[in-house]
Queue: 3 jobs
Job 1
Amino acid sequence: MKRENLLLVLWLLFGFIFIKAVDSTLYFIINTIYILELELDSSYLFVKYSMPLITFALYLFTTLLLLKKIRTTSNSEGIYLTKFPTKNFIILISTAILLIPLTHKISGLYAERSYRLENFSNFSELLEVYGLMHLGIGVSRWIIIIGLVVLFLRKYKHLE
């Protein structure tokens, strides 16, 4: 395999790991907000409707921020980049691998020991809010991916 092709594969893997690390970080932040809302004794209806909105807003804000950062700092030409950031790659892989299990562990420990769930009249309400939060995460992920595909396909057609 040529050096350029190997570097392209490494950059593709870097992009995948970068997206997974950002997604893991957003997942951690969203779960932290969920726990904070429960700790602040927020009402069932507030938590139910705020979590999908907060989730979508975080994903959209992060995407716009990253797109702006890419536009302002990218000065490379061509598809092959010459220097591969190994240290950043290791940090991103560690984040992507460790953050989601850590988030699940923290959420589980909170659920076991929490006495702050009295605003929910029964367990099904808590599960409904948790389900809506995860629905918001899934829908936000796909909306952002579809939006980026449409955006870059339009840019690509404009360049032709």
Job 2
Amino acid sequence: MSVVIYAVYRTTASGNEPVGYVTNNIMWDGVSNWAPGAGFAVVADPDRLYPIGSIYAPAATSATKTG
């Protein structure tokens, strides 16, 4: 199995972090038993388009840097 970088992003807003806010980048094979937790989701990001602090939107073609 090969590992890929994934962006962990919010599916529920919290404080100053809106839906889509990327909170972490992880290395994961995409199949091992792991879940990001309630209020979060992951997206494969091998090209590092979604660094921590950016906003991920499924229909978007690029991330927006915040802060």
Job 3
Amino acid sequence: MIEVHTPVSKECISKLQIGDQIEISGIIYTGRDAVLPKLVKLCQENPKQLKVSLEGGVMFHTAVSSAGIGPTSSNKLEIESSIGPLSEKGIKIHLGKGALSKETTKLLKKYNAIYAITPPVTALLTSKIISTEVIMFPEEGMEALHKLKVSAIPAIVAIAHGESLFCESGSK
């Protein structure tokens, strides 16, 4: 198991390979269908209003509720289309579940970012949360942008350096 701490350095990302088992500790952000398009729009149109630094960040494709956290499908249009722009703004690891497109794999490579999949085990993931805070878009309820302090979130690197676990040719 490889320990990864936030903020994630470019050097850390360059060493990770598909299939690596990682544990992420530190501050991560959450977003799904409702909030990620808003976050991308804010980054593009008015980045000074962004209340967080995305540099070296981790974006977990999930909502936060009293029932816990668990990954949502990252290949939903609203989520997958946010991966390139947020990687460009500094996000280094995207956490979720499901295969991503060849184009997204290329964008991850271009911005030296990776995609990792998490086990869909809500109780396990929830037990790794130390604290949670709504940072932006509170009107979205459990889908608001949250800042989580976590300890040892398990994941498997699924896409890195233009290679993908999801098909034999290295990309979807």
